[in-house]
C-alpha cells in the first residue's frame, strides 16, 4: 500500500520533472486584448490591487494548492508562504488529509500561517471530506477559506485512486451549509463545464476555480507513478480559456478563479479581462522555488505583477474593473467550441 505521504513526494518530484514537457495549451493563445496606442495613463496611477475574501491583495494572483504532508515538504510550504507574504498575494496549501491522518506532519501546513500571519490563506481537502475534517483543516492554519478539490481524472489515472464518485454534490452542499468560511470548489487541471458550475451554484457554492487543462497534468504525473490510466487520459480535459468562458457564460453570481496553465502576465490579463476575479498558478511557482529559492520566487511573482500592469497600460485600463470592460477577441478553436456550445463570445469583442 502506497502511503499518502509518499504520494505527496512523488507528486512534487514528477510535477518538477514533467514541468516543461507538456505540449498542451490552455487556450489563451486564442484570446486577444486590443492594443490601445493612446492610453492616457501614467504608470504610477495603474492599480492592479483587489480585495478577495475581505483581504487586500497587491495583485489578483494566488499560489494555488501544491503540497504539504511529508516532513521533507515543510521547506516548500515555508518558501511559498514567505513569497506570498513578501509579494502580497494569496496562497492555498495542498491537501491537508495527510495531517488529519497523522498529526506529526501538521507543521508542514501550519508553517504557511506562521510565515504569513496576516495573508489570505486557503485550506484544501477533497470535496469528499466530512464537515469535521474540513473544520479541522480550516482551524489548523487559521484559514480564510477552504478549497475543495474535484479530481476524477487524477483518481482514475492513479494506481491507488478512487473509483466511486457518488454523493459528491450533496456532500459539497452539506459542507457549504456547515462551514464558517467561504468554500472554493476547484479542479486540479482538467477544467469544469458550465453544467458543473450551475450544479455547484445550486449546491450553494459561490467560489469556483475552473483549474483547466493545459498546464500541470495529473494524468501524466500519475502515469509516471505507475498509474492504471491509459495515456489518453492525459489528453482529457477542458482547456482553461474555454472552461473560464463556459463558467462565466452561466451569468451566475459566482466568483470565478482562473487557473491551469496560466504562465504569463498576458494569460493573467486575458483571464481577468474575460471576468475572472483572481488568477492562480501552481507548477511554475513550485519549480521557481525549488530552483531559485524563496527570493527567486519573489522576483518571479513581482515580474508577473509588473507584466500585468504593462498589459493594463497597453489596453488603457487604470484598474481591474476597467480591464474587465476592455474589448476581448475570442478566435480559433476556443471560439469554435464556445459557438457550438451556444455561448456568444462576440459580446466580448463588441464591448
Ligand atoms: C505538485 C503539485 C501538487 C498539487 N496538489 C494539489 C492538492 O493537494 N490539492 C489541489 O486542490 N490541487 C493540487 N494541485 C493542483 C494545482 O492546485 C492546480 O490546480 C494545477 O496544478 C493546475 O495549475 P498549474 O498549471 O498552474 O500548475 C497540485 C499541483 C502540483 C503541481
Q: What would you report as the Rg, rounded to the nearest angstrom?
A: 19 Å
Class derived from helix and strand content: alpha/beta
List cofactors, ions and other ligands: flavin mononucleotide
What is the total tally of β strands?
12
Instruction: Kindly report the average pLDDT value.
Output: 96
What summary fits the major beta sheet?
8 strands, parallel, barrel
Estimated helix fraction: 40-55%
Descriptive overview:
This protein has helices at residues 4-18, 74-87, 97-101, 107-115, 131-140, 152-157, 168-178, 194-202, 218-224, 240-249, 265-274, 283-315, 320-323, 332-340, 346-350, and strands at residues 31-33, 50-52, 55-57, 61-63, 90-92, 121-126, 145-149, 183-186, 207-209, 255-259, 278-281, 328-330. It is α/β, with parallel strands linked by helices and 351 residues long. It has a single domain (4-350), classed as Aldolase class I (TIM Barrel, Alpha-Beta Barrel), CATH 3.20.20. The strands form 3 sheets. The chain has an 8-stranded parallel β-barrel, surrounded by 6 helices. Strands 1-12 form a two-stranded antiparallel ribbon. Helix 8 (194-202) links the parallel strand 8 and strand 9 (207-209). Helix 1 (4-18) crosses helix 9 (218-224), helix 2 (74-87) packs parallel to helix 4 and helix 11 (265-274) packs across helix 12. It binds flavin mononucleotide.
Amino acid at each position: 500500500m502506497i502511503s499518502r505521504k509518499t504520494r505527496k513526494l512523488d507528486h512534487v518530484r514528477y510535477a518538477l520533472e514533467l514541468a516543461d514537457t507538456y505540449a498542451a495549451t490552455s487556450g489563451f493563445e486564442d484570446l486577444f486584448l486590443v492594443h490601445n496606442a493612446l492610453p492616457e495613463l501614467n504608470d504610477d496611477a495603474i492599480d492592479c490591487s483587489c480585495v478577495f475574501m475581505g483581504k487586500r491583495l497587491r495583485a489578483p494572483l494566488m499560489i494555488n494548492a501544491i503540497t504539504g504532508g511529508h516532513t521533507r515538504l515543510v521547506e516548500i510550504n515555508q518558501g511559498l508562504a514567505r513569497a506570498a507574504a513578501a509579494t502580497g498575494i494569496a496562497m492555498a496549501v495542498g491537501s491537508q488529509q495527510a495531517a488529519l491522518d497523522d498529526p506529526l506532519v501538521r507543521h508542514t501546513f501550519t508553517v504557511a500561517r506562521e510565515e504569513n500571519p496576516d495573508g489570505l490563506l486557503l485550506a484544501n481537502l477533497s470535496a469528499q471530506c466530512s464537515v469535521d475534517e474540513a473544520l479541522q483543516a480550516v482551524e489548523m492554519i487559521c484559514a480564510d477559506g477552504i478549497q475543495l478539490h474535484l479530481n476524477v481524472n487524477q483518481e482514475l489515472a492513479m494506481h491507488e485512486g478512487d473509483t466511486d464518485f457518488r454523493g459528491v454534490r450533496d456532500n459539497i452542499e452539506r459542507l457549504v451549509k456547515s462551514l464558517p468560511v467561504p468554500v472554493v470548489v476547484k479542479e486540479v487541471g482538467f477544467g469544469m463545464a458550465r453544467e458543473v458550475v450551475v450544479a455547484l451554484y445550486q449546491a450553494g457554492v459561490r467560489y469556483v476555480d475552473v483549474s483547466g487543462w493545459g498546464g500541470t497534468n495529473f494524468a501524466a504525473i500519475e502515469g509516471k507513478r505507475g498509474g492504471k490510466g491509459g495515456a489518453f487520459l492525459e489528453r482529457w480535459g477542458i482547456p482553461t480559456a474555454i472552461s473560464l468562458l463556459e463558467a462565466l457564460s452561466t451569468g451566475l453570481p459566482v466568483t470565478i478563479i482562473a487557473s491551469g496553465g496560466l504562465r504569463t502576465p498576458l494569460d493573467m490579463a486575458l483571464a481577468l479581462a474575460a471576468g475572472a476575479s483572481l488568477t492562480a498558478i501552481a507548477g511554475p511557482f513550485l519549480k521557481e522555488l525549488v530552483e531559485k529559492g524563496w527570493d527567486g520566487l519573489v522576483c518571479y511573482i513581482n515580474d508577473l505583477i509588473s507584466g500585468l500592469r504593462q498589459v493594463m497600460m497597453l489596453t488603457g485600463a487604470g484598474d481591474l474593473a476597467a480591464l474587465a470592460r476592455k474589448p476581448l477577441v475570442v478566435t480559433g478553436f476556443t471560439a469554435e467550441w464556445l459557438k457550438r456550445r451556444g455561448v456568444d463570445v462576440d459580446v466580448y469583442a463588441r464591448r
